[in-house]
Design a protein that fits this description.
The N terminus is likely disordered. The radius of gyration is 34 Å and the shape is elongated. The chain is of the alpha+beta class. Helix content is 29%, strand content 45%. It folds into 2 domains: 114 residues, 2-Layer Sandwich (Translation Initiation Factor IF3); 97 residues, Protein of unknown function (DUF541), domain 2 (Alpha-Beta Plaits, 2-Layer Sandwich). Strand 4 and strand 5 form a beta hairpin.
């Protein structure tokens, strides 16, 4: 009778058992590591009346920025400057107001002037400027380059600098380590539950990955001084599994 009551209690607490008796548990684990791959995206944007002249300005700035990257030790293979966008800018339709004067004589000696306004909308769209932008993306492995690059980009008049993104070169290996630990923790948790419930833990019936996390973005300010040194701490690569174990008689 006792064993039957315990089994019913487990099924009530853990209703997700896929229509069979068992113990369902969640195992979580994390492996800490320092990111070692960094990437940055910048944008150069200019406006002008001539599309060709505006693009030339953007191209010249882009060339200087790429030269700076190479001078800082970034390989040309790690620099992507292929994305160029050009947009025509049109002037919005305007509404013109014209002043009118109305005269009404009440008698020959008196004159009353009434002022009013009438409007006229010009629906003609006029091309006024072109906006040209180029996006440059780079990747590098030395975080110490970030502060130097950021300082140079500000001086070169870059329009926009994205937060630096980070990842781990061996992230898959780190995840497999975390996954193995998560499976072990799930088994240990199921064993503890079975022991406390007074039942015998059976074999594994089901195992499913249910979560994964690896750090991809680390936000920093878009301006920096050369006297400031950016630091990055260890980040977690996490894994999570859902396991179902049988209950032996």
């Amino acid at each position: 009778m006792f064993k039957r009551l315990v089994t019913i209690g487990l099924l009530f607490i853990l209703p997700n058992v896929n229509a069979f008796e068992g113990i369902e548990v969640t195992g979580k684990a994390s492996v800490m590591a320092i990111p070692d791959v960094f990437s940055l995206t910048i944008s150069i944007k200019e406006r002008g009346k001539s599309a060709n002249k505006t693009k030339t300005i953007v191209d010249d700035k882009s060339a200087n920025i790429v030269k700076m990257f190479i001078k800082r030790g970034i390989n040309e293979e790690s620099i992507d400057s292929s994305q160029v966008h050009m947009f025509p800018i049109y002037e919005k339709p305007s509404i013109t107001f014209e002043q009118q004067e109305l005269h009404k004589r009440i008698n020959p000696q008196e004159k009353i002037t009434l002022s009013g306004k009438s409007s006229h909308q010009d629906n003609t769209r006029r091309l006024t400027q072109f906006e040209v932008s180029r996006t440059i993306s780079i990747s590098f492995k030395q975080l110490s380059l970030y502060d130097q690059i950021l300082d140079d980009l500000v001086k070169l008049g870059v329009s926009q600098i994205s937060p630096v993104e980070m990842s781990m070169e061996n992230s898959e290996k780190l995840y497999q380590q975390a996954l193995s630990q998560a499976i072990d923790k799930a088994k240990q948790k199921a064993s503890d539950i079975a022991k406390q419930a007074g039942v015998k833990l059976g074999g594994l019936l089901s195992l499913k990955e249910s979560g994964y996390y690896s750090p991809m973005r680390f936000t920093m300010a878009s301006e920096a001084k050369s006297s400031f040194s950016t630091q990055v701490t260890k980040k977690a690569v996490s894994a999570q599994v859902i396991a179902i174990y049988a209950i032996d008689d």
